[in-house]
Amino acid sequence: MGIVYLIGFMGSGKSTVGKKLGNVLQLPHVDMDSFIEEQTLRSISTIFSEMGENTFRNYESDVLKKIEHGVVSTGGGIVERRENIEWMKAKGTVIYLRTTFSEITNRLHNDSLRPLWKKSVSERRQLFEHRCDLYESFADYVVDTDNKGTKEIAEEIDRLL
Ligand code: S3P
């Protein structure tokens, strides 16, 4: 199985499901966004506003390569760099937590912590559609998350692995 990578759009539950899955599999859990915040002593939104998205993507790619073991909750944009996709495919199993746009909108509403969600509805939807194609084409498994609890999702992934 190697490393288990959870991918999916913002608000798909990667962080909470990752934590639960780590418990179920008895493996360490790494949340990449939290890891970056701890390492840089800055919030994700501060990194975006002060240093730009490209710097954040560099941090993200570096962190991905440092993780050698366990369950990894990636950030929604991990698939924006081809090298990251290739890395994950080579090192482990990639699980796509698939959530509909309306469910994401319900969950995030007007979340202000995610710089790429602070956009117009049409820009959000455009990003969602572009990303979903990427998630779907690179995942080893797709798990639907609408109307499911995080424990149920973690158990479903456990059965797939
Ligand atoms: C991003 C998603 C965020 C975070 C950053 C960029 C994206 O993570 O990495 O704001 O590009 O979709 P979550 O998917 O955990 O919200």
UniProtKB/TrEMBL annotation:
Swiss-Prot/TrEMBL cofactor(s): Mg(2+)
InterPro entries from the UniProt entry: P-loop_NTPase (IPR027417), Shikimate/glucono_kinase (IPR031322), Shikimate_kinase/TSH1 (IPR000623)
Residues that bind Mg(2+): S15
SUPFAM superfamilies in UniProt: P-loop containing nucleoside triphosphate hydrolases
Binding site for ATP: G11, S12, G13, K14, S15, T16, R114
Major site of localization recorded for this protein: cytoplasm
Superkingdom in the source lineage: Bacteria
Assigned GO CC terms: cytosol
Gene3D superfamilies, A to Z: P-loop containing nucleotide triphosphate hydrolases (3.40.50.300)
Protein family membership: Belongs to the shikimate kinase family.
Function text: Catalyzes the specific phosphorylation of the 3-hydroxyl group of shikimic acid using ATP as a cosubstrate.
Entry protein name: Shikimate kinase
Species in which this protein is naturally found: Oceanobacillus limi
